[in-house]
Amino acid sequence: MNAPNASGWRPEMGEAGAILPATVSGDHGLNLEEKLIFELAAPGTYGVDFDDADVAPAPALGKFLRKAAPALPGLTEPEVVRHYTRLSRQNYAIDLGPFPLGSCTMKHNPRLNEKVARMAGFADVHPLQPTQTVQGALKVITQLADWLMALTGMPAVAMTPKAGAHGELCGLLCIRAALTARGEERPVVLVPESAHGTNPATAAFAGFRVENIPATEDGRVDVAALTARLGPDIAGVMITNPNTCGLFERDLKVISDAVHGVGGYVYCDGANFNAIVGKVRPGDLGIDAMHINLHKTFSTPHGGGGPGSGPVVLSEALAPFAPLPFATLDADGVAHLVEEGDAHDHGHPNSFGRMTAFHGQMGMFTRALTYILSHGADGLRQVSEDAVLNANYILRELEDVLDAPFAAYGPCMHEALFSDNGMAEGFSTLDLAKGLIDEGFHPMTVYFPLVVHGAMLVEPTETESKAGTDRLIASMRSLAERGRAGDVTLKSAPHYTPRRRVDETLAARKPKLVWKD
Amino acid sequence: MRYLPLTPADRATMLARIGVDNIDALFSDVPADALQAGPIAGLPAHASEMAVERHMGRLAGENLSAGAAPFFLGAGAYKHHIPASVDHLIQRGEFLTAYTPYQPEIAQGTLQVLFEFQTQVARLLGTDIANASLYDGSTACWEAIAMAHRVTKRKKSILTGGLHPHYVATAQTMARFTDDVLVAQAPVLSGDAEDAAIIAAIDGETSAVVVQYPDILGRIPDLAAIAAAAQAHGALLIAVVTEPVALGLLEAPGALGADIVVGEGQSLGVGLQFGGPYLGLFGCREKFLRQIPGRLCGETVDAEGRRSFVLTLSTREQHIRREKATSNICTNSGLCALAFSIHMSLLGGAGLERLARINHGKAQALAQALMQVPGISVLNDAYFNEFTVILPKDAREVVDALAAKGVLGGVPLGRLYTNQPALANGLLLTATECTSDEDIAALVAALKEVL
Questions:
Q1: Which SUPFAM superfamilies match (chain A) (predicted)?
Q2: Which residue has the higher pLDDT, A13 or A245?
């Protein structure tokens, strides 16, 4: 019989020390398993106390009254705190170590940002309060807008987009509206093949047809191919700068001039703005629109997948079409919220409309403005310089063991790109990424951009110390060498995580998206 | 600088290792005339934590917060009490500072939360399945319309008169640039929801009919009747819930026949925050699975056969399908979904019902009190925690006058419908568990003075 005794030991486990003993609980010391809430509690209980005097004596809802309460489990506060705290321990996070995800800019999230966002005057104000009662909230928006315009050298900014891709959409809708105002139908948007997937998806969502532009050998947009394609059917181009290979698009101004020359517009994907804040104003390169991911460059937390925030700076040509509502300050320093009813009076009659119910991600604006004021103009420039310095340091330290396809053409910006060329037969980027997990790091971005085989995009950000970066480099060197040597233990990595490699095919083939009894 | 760990000595060492003399050598690809040097005109330099906190505190102090005044606003954003443990737990760094869980071995915490969230949302809305959240209710509403058009291969949706006008505007913005046709019905100031007009508008060309429940005026449409009419024409019913607490007392839209149910999840766990970030809820029938926008978390096993969770069906999404994706969305509202899920776990179905009864009771008390004020009439026949009153003059003036007395007295319909004079005297009022008898007395007293 293999029934566990009180200590959890079973006969097949053999002598203690040879094989680690199983446990009755399923936990292993501080490695904790956690059931689903639906397995921890039953409907009928709850962990919030109410004042019974407040309960409606007789709901006046007639036939609309539901017959039974929703079948949702409730837990008391100690159970809830424990459930989520135990779950939290199965996550990697910036607070635990470097998070070198290229193009994601996983930098430290300052805690002052969190404190400020929770001030009652920001956290507990309703979007439809009379504007005289929310002057400070509106000024947060205008002050942040002023900084974003100054740092980008652009004359206008739309603050309402809720994430980067929503910002892309805002920019492309401005382009659509501008073309419509000119009485033109231009069906095509050009997108480099190295672009983020959101770029072509957004262009299609905004009703354009997408055509790809190739890259050159040194990882930039092929200017000759792009200009050869320009013509009266081109609405615009979407270019990421610095691009997704971590390189500055040297010829962006040339591209902008050429696109403008045929009546098109230039959308710049600002996902990588962290490399150039305070160093380069994208407006000087002739762009017409660029979204800024406040959750990347300006340190608002990623939160396990959002919420983000994606304000869009706009050129004079596109600004008249910017969405409603927006905040503005008058000459007396009084803040106004311009909505549908008074857009005309505020000189903004041609807006393409509203993109979302309210005024954007205010909770992110307070955090981003707090971050910007903390750094100031000098600190923001230092941010970019340190981010670029850390990335180039990694590139130099690893280029002898990892193939760096563009290193020969000059420095990178804030992220270093490697390929899996030189790995042993059957070993690829995924194995190095999973090995890096065993080393205690979050992996770099893998298999993106698509233009490099087995791409590994490493973005350390400026908030890593030299010692922290050196530790990451040492681990990556070791993994590169093991990958070159064909170390089979890499194929089964990660070994030291709450879960081993998971079966993604099963998840997609037999989708199970909700728990069932 | 407190957020930058590199020392001047580190920088010098690293530049030497790279083999360049100075930092600008690393920016050599930037055209010389575009590289900024020297101070940036008009922008201040770095500041201490204390100085920044003081600046932001002053700005916060220029706002009258909902908790500091008698407060009666709703219209898609609601003031509810958030248990202290919610905000504590979402600030754990392992949740707050994690990325999207693309590496499932080290993100089971976030993934299990999303799986639990999807289950909670599906059960709350009465749908088979739910996604891992969208930006907010208004964008979720458009995504539902776009999905209905993919599913039915029809291009026309009806935006009913009770749908939040900002949701209408958001959908119209998108449809301006596509070949989707949106028929927006005008709202009518009637005590009953506009069921008959909605049903009459559905025809064989209709892809979806979009019905808010309760609607923007607080009325409760007969979803079952509308669902039957939609089904008879091969159209889908999209139900929109801006106040999920209502589902503690009202039948779930999915159980009444809605094919897609979207909502604004802000009421549970997420503060008002002047409009965002909020939380888009999205549930639907299982047969639409491969047409759903946004992230989905699914159950699977790991290499050792243990139950595990992973983001799945990503072949719908932009990073795989690029221009052929179901949506361009590249995020969910993760931390807000976590807050919602924690609050929902504290409440459970029984707690939600109790919370809903309290909200409803407070609204009944508010309506009773307002009926005693000369010149005010209550429009609604039925309501949950929000209803419309008709004032003898433009409600915007009244709300401004109330604000001057320190009372945040509801949402004037003229704020939401800027070009419809017939609605100008309408005022939308909400009561929740946060509304006290003293708040109601203060509103009544102030109204008597300003009317």
A1: PLP-dependent transferases
A2: A245
- CA–CA min distance B375, chain A (Å): 23
What ipTM was predicted for this assembly?
Answer: 0.97
Q: What is the pLDDT of residues B414-443, one digit of tens each?
A: 999 998 999 999 999 999 999 999 999 999
Q: What is the DSSP letter of A22?
A: P
- Shortest Cα–Cα distance, B217 to chain A (Å): 15
Distance from CA of B330 to the nearest CA of A (A): 6
If pLDDT is split at 50, 70 and 90, which confidence band does A18 have? low
State the architecture of A98-107+154-320+377-517 in CATH terms: 3-Layer(aba) Sandwich (3.40)
Nearest CA in chain A to B274: A127
Contacts of B276 in chain A (CB under 8 A): 127, 162, 307, 356, 358-364
Res A96 pLDDT > 60:
yes
Q: Do B354 and A50 touch (CB under 8 A)?
A: yes
Domain ranges of chain A: 98-107+154-320+377-517
Full set of structural domains in chain B with CATH: 68-78+349-450 (3.90.1150.10), 84-343 (3.40.640.10)
Q: What b/e sequence results for B306-322 when a residue is b if at least 16 CB atoms lie within 10 Å of its CB, and e otherwise?
A: ebbbbbbbbebbbeebb
Lowest-pLDDT choice from A180-189, A447-456, B206-215, B317-326: B317-326
Nearest-angstrom CA–CA distance, B254 and B258: 5
CB A402 within 8 A of CB A429: no
Place of tokens 């993109």: A355
In sequence order, the 6+-apart residues with CB closer than 8 A to the CB of A460 are: A98, A100, A387, A390, A391, A394, A469, A472
Q: Closest residue of B to A90, CA-based?
A: B109
Query: Which candidate in B11, B20, B26 is best for mutational testing of the A interface (most A CBs within 10 A)?
Result: B26
User: Which of B23, B63, B420 is most worth mutating to test chain A (most A CB atoms within 10 A of its CB)?
Assistant: B63
Q: What is the pTM of this model?
A: 0.96
